[in-house]
Amino acid sequence: VATDAPEAWQIAEAHADGAIGFRDAVYALVGCIPHGKALGYGGVASLIGRPGAARQVGYALAALPPGTEVPWWRVTRSDGSIALAGDPNRGPAQVARLQAEGIAIVEHRFDMDRHKWVPHA
DNA sequence: GGCATGACATTGC
DNA sequence: AGCAATGCCATGC
């Protein structure tokens, strides 16, 4: 299986084994989200194996450096609304990124069911 | 080790 | 459908 990126379950396992910390697991998983897809904070937390730690996902992403390669913009709220909508800095940037990937956003919200990423197990 | 903080999720009104 | 209140958990001090 020549996948260029680790599978979601592998990340969850690595985190469970303590090989990587929660934050690193978040970064790795977010990095797996394909172009044009999105995921809710809770969804990311669940895939890592820590359902309920949705807030920490945001906390981890907030710690990302400006020029990071992690596609943090593909992570939104579970209902498809932009958490950073009120942020004059990252908000517009996130919306622009998503739209550039083909996701139609109206009033800082988009159809999550239509763009939600579902790892193929 | 305990306390306060926070890019969320859910439920109830 | 929209708003308010409550629960959850990793981080940092």
Please describe what this structure looks like.
The protein is mainly alpha-helical and 121 residues long. The protein is globular, with a radius of gyration of 14 Å. 41% of the residues lie in helices and 3% in strands. The chain binds a DNA duplex (13 and 13 nucleotides) through residues 21-23, 40-42, 45, 50-63, 72, 75-79, 82-84, 87, 90, 94.
What are the SSEs and their pairings?
Layout: H1 8-16, H2 22-30, E1 39-40, H3 41-48, H4 54-62, E2 75-76, H5 90-100, H6 112-115
Parallel strand pairs: 1-2
Helix pairs in contact: 1-2, 2-3, 2-4, 3-4
This protein binds a DNA duplex (13 and 13 nucleotides) through helix 3, helix 4 and strand 2.
Q: What labels describe this entry?
A:
single chain; 121 residues; mainly alpha; two-stranded parallel ribbon; 6 helices; 3% strand; DNA-binding
